[in-house]
Amino acid sequence: MTTTPNYATEMRECAEAIGLNPPEFVTPEDKWVTLNGIRMHYLDWGNESKPPLVLLHGGGLTAHTWDMAALLLRPHYHMIALDQRGHGDTEWTPEAQLGEDNDALMLRDTEAFIDFLGYPQVILCGMSMGGNNSYRYAPTHADRLRLLIIVDVAPDLSSEGQRDMAAFRRDSETLSRFEDFLDRAVQFNPNRAPAHLKYSLMHSLKPAEGGGWTWKQDHRRRTPQDDAARAAHASSLWTAVREITTPTLLMRGEVSRILSAENAEATAKAMHDCELVVIPRATHNVQGDNPKDFAAALDAFVVKRLGEGR
Hints:
alpha/beta, 18% strand
């Protein structure tokens, strides 16, 4: 890939390749806001009269991870997808703050972004890293949430799956050609159509200094987590999970190697009001692997809890 791609064309080709038939093809509007000293990029899908649905992506991904599902959900929601700090086209954490707790920084970002949007209440949907941020936000902001949707993350996760993801990112930090990234992505996730992987990479990569391509992600070295730090992280999430009173939908990818069926069930049972649904033919990246069933499950949950008028 040597030229700037046409966003609308690539979107349509991706949708056609995976058999998606949205009511219409609409590209979101790129917007920016400065919060907590970070210039943040987000996608606004329009339909301001519809219920606001705020989307927080996973680690290593961008706001565009929701695009295919967004094409199906847009008629019913005003979707706003944030590039979280250090990801996509949002700025990275300043050097002076690298020693601070990144979880705390991202929680403050979530609070600031939802406050900036100004809606009395939103539906909040977070996947993986974004799901952890949503878990932490929900207990103390129940008045701002109509519903909570968590995608393939829980306090306890599979260490093997996490190691595989970390290795994939580490081994593909910088490659000579865009096509090299695509080849590795196809090998890593054969469940996903190559055309969809290409579309995702188009938004996740940037030219590297000195040539080649690299991720749009902050990979600067931080203090590595030891066993005690990981245990403390899980413990704090369990505390948050048990304190959430907002009606919640927990989605798990059927073949996820990150969230096991047992951990998903334990998390759902620990919450005050949580439904668990398994999305077929999906790995950890549920909304990417099976956007059609992801969108259908999300909408069915909202309709069940809020009614047809949402």
